[in-house]
Amino acid sequence: SQQGEEDPQALSIQEGENATMNCSYKTSINNLQWYRQNSGRGLVHLILIRSNEREKHSGRLRVTLDTSKKSSSLLITASRAADTASYFCATDQANTGKLIFGQGTTLQVKP
Amino acid sequence: GAVVSQHPSRVICKSGTSVKIECRSLDFQATTMFWYRQFPKQSLMLMATSNEGSKATYEQGVEKDKFLINHASLTLSTLTVTSAHPEDSSFYICSAPGLAGSTQETQYFGPGTRLLVL
Protein backbone atom coordinates (compact mmCIF):
# COMPACT_ATOMS: atom_id res chain seq x y z
CA SER A 1 0.00 0.00 0.00
CA GLN A 2 1.11 3.55 -0.55
CA GLN A 3 2.64 5.30 2.41
CA GLY A 4 1.16 8.68 1.74
CA GLU A 5 0.37 11.54 -0.46
CA GLU A 6 2.39 13.97 -2.48
CA ASP A 7 1.22 17.34 -3.52
CA PRO A 8 0.87 18.87 -5.89
CA GLN A 9 0.30 16.00 -8.29
CA ALA A 10 1.49 18.21 -11.12
CA LEU A 11 3.48 21.42 -11.16
CA SER A 12 4.36 23.64 -14.09
CA ILE A 13 6.82 26.51 -13.67
CA GLN A 14 9.14 28.71 -15.69
CA GLU A 15 12.86 28.11 -15.83
CA GLY A 16 14.58 29.95 -13.00
CA GLU A 17 11.68 29.66 -10.60
CA ASN A 18 11.70 27.50 -7.51
CA ALA A 19 9.68 24.30 -7.27
CA THR A 20 8.33 22.96 -4.01
CA MET A 21 6.87 19.50 -3.58
CA ASN A 22 5.34 18.09 -0.44
CA CYS A 23 5.05 14.58 0.84
CA SER A 24 3.09 13.19 3.75
CA TYR A 25 3.38 9.73 5.23
CA LYS A 26 1.46 7.66 7.73
CA THR A 27 3.78 5.62 9.92
CA SER A 28 6.99 6.20 11.82
CA ILE A 29 10.07 6.06 9.65
CA ASN A 30 13.80 5.50 9.79
CA ASN A 31 14.48 7.76 6.84
CA LEU A 32 12.79 9.47 3.93
CA GLN A 33 14.25 9.66 0.46
CA TRP A 34 13.50 11.63 -2.66
CA TYR A 35 13.87 10.17 -6.12
CA ARG A 36 13.57 11.50 -9.61
CA GLN A 37 12.22 9.59 -12.58
CA ASN A 38 12.39 10.71 -16.16
CA SER A 39 9.57 9.46 -18.33
CA GLY A 40 9.74 5.70 -18.77
CA ARG A 41 13.07 5.40 -17.02
CA GLY A 42 14.46 4.10 -13.76
CA LEU A 43 14.82 6.10 -10.60
CA VAL A 44 17.66 8.33 -9.57
CA HIS A 45 18.32 8.83 -5.88
CA LEU A 46 18.41 12.52 -5.00
CA ILE A 47 18.69 12.88 -1.28
CA LEU A 48 18.07 11.02 1.98
CA ILE A 49 17.06 12.55 5.26
CA ARG A 50 17.05 10.60 8.49
CA SER A 51 14.30 10.76 11.06
CA ASN A 52 16.51 12.74 13.46
CA GLU A 53 17.34 15.36 10.85
CA ARG A 54 15.20 18.37 10.06
CA GLU A 55 16.82 19.81 6.95
CA LYS A 56 19.32 18.78 4.36
CA HIS A 57 20.86 20.41 1.31
CA SER A 58 22.43 19.03 -1.82
CA GLY A 59 23.27 21.48 -4.58
CA ARG A 60 20.03 23.11 -5.67
CA LEU A 61 17.98 20.72 -3.56
CA ARG A 62 16.70 21.40 -0.08
CA VAL A 63 14.74 18.83 1.85
CA THR A 64 12.93 19.32 5.13
CA LEU A 65 11.42 16.73 7.41
CA ASP A 66 8.83 17.29 10.12
CA THR A 67 8.27 14.02 11.92
CA SER A 68 5.62 15.52 14.17
CA LYS A 69 3.52 16.28 11.10
CA LYS A 70 4.77 13.26 9.19
CA SER A 71 5.65 15.39 6.24
CA SER A 72 8.57 16.36 4.07
CA SER A 73 9.19 18.91 1.37
CA LEU A 74 11.58 19.05 -1.55
CA LEU A 75 12.62 22.45 -2.86
CA ILE A 76 14.42 22.77 -6.16
CA THR A 77 15.87 26.23 -6.57
CA ALA A 78 16.61 28.02 -9.83
CA SER A 79 14.90 25.29 -11.83
CA ARG A 80 16.08 24.25 -15.28
CA ALA A 81 14.25 22.65 -18.16
CA ALA A 82 16.30 19.53 -17.49
CA ASP A 83 14.62 19.24 -14.07
CA THR A 84 11.42 18.21 -15.86
CA ALA A 85 10.60 14.78 -14.42
CA SER A 86 8.49 13.00 -11.84
CA TYR A 87 9.62 13.25 -8.25
CA PHE A 88 8.80 10.67 -5.62
CA CYS A 89 9.29 10.56 -1.91
CA ALA A 90 9.84 7.17 -0.36
CA THR A 91 10.00 6.08 3.23
CA ASP A 92 11.99 3.33 4.84
CA GLN A 93 10.30 2.38 8.09
CA ALA A 94 12.93 0.17 9.62
CA ASN A 95 16.10 0.69 7.58
CA THR A 96 15.40 -2.53 5.73
CA GLY A 97 15.71 -1.00 2.30
CA LYS A 98 12.04 -1.66 1.57
CA LEU A 99 10.71 1.61 0.26
CA ILE A 100 7.12 2.77 0.30
CA PHE A 101 6.60 5.43 -2.32
CA GLY A 102 4.36 8.44 -2.42
CA GLN A 103 2.14 9.15 -5.40
CA GLY A 104 4.66 11.45 -7.01
CA THR A 105 4.71 14.97 -8.39
CA THR A 106 5.13 15.59 -12.08
CA LEU A 107 7.21 18.69 -12.60
CA GLN A 108 7.38 20.56 -15.87
CA VAL A 109 9.90 23.36 -16.21
CA LYS A 110 9.28 25.51 -19.24
CA PRO A 111 12.30 27.08 -20.93
CA GLY B 1 28.39 5.05 -8.24
CA ALA B 2 26.82 1.62 -8.01
CA VAL B 3 25.14 0.36 -11.17
CA VAL B 4 22.18 -1.95 -11.48
CA SER B 5 21.15 -3.32 -14.85
CA GLN B 6 18.00 -5.03 -16.03
CA HIS B 7 17.39 -7.25 -18.98
CA PRO B 8 15.43 -7.07 -21.14
CA SER B 9 14.54 -3.40 -21.21
CA ARG B 10 11.36 -4.13 -23.09
CA VAL B 11 9.42 -7.31 -23.81
CA ILE B 12 6.22 -8.11 -25.62
CA CYS B 13 4.69 -11.52 -25.12
CA LYS B 14 1.51 -13.42 -25.77
CA SER B 15 -0.98 -14.06 -23.03
CA GLY B 16 -0.24 -17.32 -21.22
CA THR B 17 3.49 -17.28 -21.72
CA SER B 18 6.12 -16.76 -19.04
CA VAL B 19 8.62 -13.93 -19.03
CA LYS B 20 11.89 -13.77 -17.14
CA ILE B 21 13.41 -10.43 -16.10
CA GLU B 22 16.96 -10.21 -14.83
CA CYS B 23 18.35 -7.72 -12.37
CA ARG B 24 22.11 -7.49 -11.93
CA SER B 25 24.33 -5.48 -9.67
CA LEU B 26 27.29 -4.73 -11.90
CA ASP B 27 30.00 -3.51 -9.59
CA PHE B 28 28.89 -4.63 -6.17
CA GLN B 29 27.32 -7.58 -4.42
CA ALA B 30 23.76 -7.53 -3.19
CA THR B 31 22.44 -10.10 -0.78
CA THR B 32 19.09 -8.37 -1.01
CA MET B 33 17.28 -6.92 -3.98
CA PHE B 34 13.81 -5.48 -4.29
CA TRP B 35 11.24 -5.75 -7.05
CA TYR B 36 8.74 -3.00 -7.76
CA ARG B 37 5.93 -2.63 -10.25
CA GLN B 38 4.76 0.65 -11.72
CA PHE B 39 1.59 1.06 -13.76
CA PRO B 40 1.31 4.01 -16.17
CA LYS B 41 1.15 7.37 -14.44
CA GLN B 42 1.25 5.71 -11.06
CA SER B 43 3.81 5.28 -8.35
CA LEU B 44 6.03 2.31 -7.59
CA MET B 45 4.60 -0.54 -5.58
CA LEU B 46 6.91 -2.92 -3.75
CA MET B 47 6.25 -6.46 -4.84
CA ALA B 48 8.82 -8.55 -3.06
CA THR B 49 12.22 -8.78 -1.42
CA SER B 50 14.68 -11.09 -3.10
CA ASN B 51 17.10 -12.76 -0.69
CA GLU B 52 20.26 -14.51 -1.80
CA GLY B 53 20.28 -18.06 -0.51
CA SER B 54 16.73 -18.07 0.78
CA LYS B 55 13.16 -17.62 -0.32
CA ALA B 56 11.82 -14.30 -1.43
CA THR B 57 9.37 -12.50 0.79
CA TYR B 58 6.30 -11.10 -0.89
CA GLU B 59 4.20 -8.09 -0.05
CA GLN B 60 0.56 -8.55 0.78
CA GLY B 61 -1.53 -9.14 -2.31
CA VAL B 62 1.33 -10.30 -4.51
CA GLU B 63 0.97 -13.89 -5.70
CA LYS B 64 4.20 -15.76 -5.12
CA ASP B 65 3.27 -18.47 -7.61
CA LYS B 66 2.60 -15.84 -10.23
CA PHE B 67 5.77 -13.87 -9.70
CA LEU B 68 8.63 -16.28 -9.15
CA ILE B 69 11.79 -14.77 -7.74
CA ASN B 70 15.17 -16.45 -7.68
CA HIS B 71 18.25 -14.80 -6.22
CA ALA B 72 20.75 -17.01 -7.97
CA SER B 73 23.93 -15.26 -6.89
CA LEU B 74 25.19 -12.20 -5.08
CA THR B 75 24.81 -10.17 -8.26
CA LEU B 76 21.70 -11.60 -9.91
CA SER B 77 18.02 -11.77 -9.10
CA THR B 78 15.38 -12.89 -11.57
CA LEU B 79 11.67 -12.24 -11.64
CA THR B 80 9.57 -14.60 -13.73
CA VAL B 81 6.05 -13.57 -14.56
CA THR B 82 4.29 -16.88 -15.11
CA SER B 83 1.29 -17.32 -17.38
CA ALA B 84 1.28 -13.62 -18.11
CA HIS B 85 -1.99 -11.83 -18.79
CA PRO B 86 -2.67 -8.36 -20.17
CA GLU B 87 -3.22 -7.02 -16.63
CA ASP B 88 0.41 -7.93 -15.86
CA SER B 89 1.54 -5.36 -18.40
CA SER B 90 3.58 -2.90 -16.39
CA PHE B 91 6.99 -1.40 -15.74
CA TYR B 92 9.04 -3.66 -13.48
CA ILE B 93 11.95 -2.12 -11.62
CA CYS B 94 14.50 -3.70 -9.34
CA SER B 95 16.74 -2.09 -6.76
CA ALA B 96 19.68 -3.06 -4.62
CA PRO B 97 21.16 -1.37 -1.57
CA GLY B 98 24.32 0.53 -2.26
CA LEU B 99 26.29 -1.05 0.53
CA ALA B 100 25.79 -4.79 0.41
CA GLY B 101 25.18 -6.43 3.73
CA SER B 102 25.28 -3.24 5.74
CA THR B 103 23.14 -0.15 5.84
CA GLN B 104 20.31 -0.34 3.41
CA GLU B 105 19.86 3.38 3.20
CA THR B 106 20.67 4.14 -0.41
CA GLN B 107 18.96 2.09 -3.05
CA TYR B 108 20.22 1.89 -6.59
CA PHE B 109 17.52 1.26 -9.13
CA GLY B 110 17.73 -0.55 -12.39
CA PRO B 111 16.49 1.13 -15.57
CA GLY B 112 13.31 -0.93 -15.56
CA THR B 113 11.70 -3.49 -17.84
CA ARG B 114 8.56 -2.63 -19.70
CA LEU B 115 6.33 -5.68 -20.15
CA LEU B 116 3.47 -5.71 -22.59
CA VAL B 117 1.25 -8.77 -22.64
CA LEU B 118 -0.96 -9.10 -25.69
Q: What is the tally of helical segments of chain B? A: 0
Main sheet summary of chain A: 6 strands, mixed
Question: Largest sheet of chain B at a glance?
Answer: 7 strands, mixed
Q: Could you name the ranges of chain A where pLDDT drops below 50 across 5 or more consecutive residues?
A: none
State the helical fraction of chain A. under 10%
Distance between the termini of chain A: 36 Å
Q: What is the CA-CA span between the terminal residues of chain B?
A: 37 Å
What low-confidence regions of chain B span 5 or more consecutive residues with pLDDT below 50? none
Oligomer: heterodimer
Report the principal-axis shape of chain B: globular
| Count of helical regions of chain A | 0
The counted number of beta strands of chain B is 11
Strand content of chain A: over 45%
Mind telling me the C-alpha Rg of chain A?
A: 13 Å
SS-derived structural category of chain B: mainly beta
Which features does this protein show?
heterodimer; A: 111 residues; mainly beta; six-stranded mixed beta sheet; five-stranded antiparallel beta sheet; globular; B: 118 residues; seven-stranded mixed beta sheet; four-stranded antiparallel beta sheet; 11 strands
In summary, what is this structure?
Chain A has 111 residues and is mostly beta strands. Helices cover 0% and strands 55% of the residues of chain A.
